[in-house]
Amino acid sequence: MTVDDTGSGADADGRMDPPAFSAPAEREDPDAVDPGGDPLALRLEGLILGAERRYTPFQAARSAGVSMELASRFWRAMGFADIGQARALTEADVLALRRLAGLVEAGLLSEAMAVQVARSTGQTTARLAEWQIDSFLEGLTEPPEPGMTRTEVTYPLVELLLPELEEFLVYVWRRQLAAATGRVVQAGDDEEMVDRRLAVGFADLVGFTRLTRRMEEEELGELVEAFETTAADLVAARGGRLIKTLGDEVLYSADDAAVAAEIALRLIETMAHDETMPELRVGIAFGTVTTRMGDVFGTTVNLASRLTSIAPRDAVLVDSAFAEELIRTGEAPASEAEAAEAAATAEKEGEEPPAYRFALQPMWQRPVRGLGVVEPWLLTRRDGPAA
After folding, report:
1. pTM for the model
2. pLDDT (tens digit, 9 = 90+) per residue, 267-302?
3. Angle value at C-alpha 9, between 4 and 14, nearest 5 degrees
């Protein structure tokens, strides 16, 4: 079963799979309770969802006033497995279907956009939930006394944490929504809201594959977590946006080339001071980028990835468009000869010389698979690390 970007249930050959919410067969009792499920797991589910299992998918769709086909698309888009016609849904599921369908009926969202909203929300929160269970609850639910089971500890703990985590989630979401809305409002035109000129950077740990063969799983997990945490903190602190992490690699973007350059060099400098970390290489490109569902796509992104793969260890390679942007904004000189000439002219006229933050060194042109011949530039600081 494959699900395309529009949420249809067509497979690779164009055939349609049965919907996730199929109508009950004649021999099935639509009111039958799903016989499976651990009793404590069901109690935890009821605690978290705030309601008991009550509806089959058919009943939920009917109660929400939504077609089975649309209900199935929403359900799959949110990332949930097909459940046949088990009585496993709650009032919250009915309300969610009703809200999404209501947005479509009111003309606020198209049906395809509503499916995208369901998919983006489902993907983001699925990763958050997995992280919280793996890294947070798992450690806290170790039985405090011999003889106690983990499940005996989990229920009261979840009961205490749930309202606090929910409030915090809503707070962070509103903050992120405000920041994203601000970026859109400041865009010059409608096209810029989707296809924007951004600096895109990849940072990649060198020799990570070899490390996976030498290190224990727990050590490797700690290294990846430290790398992702450090990178996320640096990107956020300097005004960039973390797009995603891929274990040994992070992808970030920035509206300003100088911000992207500062993030890249800070990453190199920070990792170099940590003896437990492998060497790092970074590639940055500047140009038009298509943004969709929190991710970025296009030739600029591909070029940044290719530059990362050919960058020297503990070094930053940028493309010519990025170099031109730094030169245009006065953040770097076109050459050291130009910088010396500008300094001499300023001294002769009794003025302050230009305060260039970065230096650019042209490298040999080389063919890059799928992108033709590119001219990379080596990015460094002019006067050592910033304070």
Report:
1. 0.66
2. 999 988 888 788 899 999 999 998 877 788 899 999
3. 80
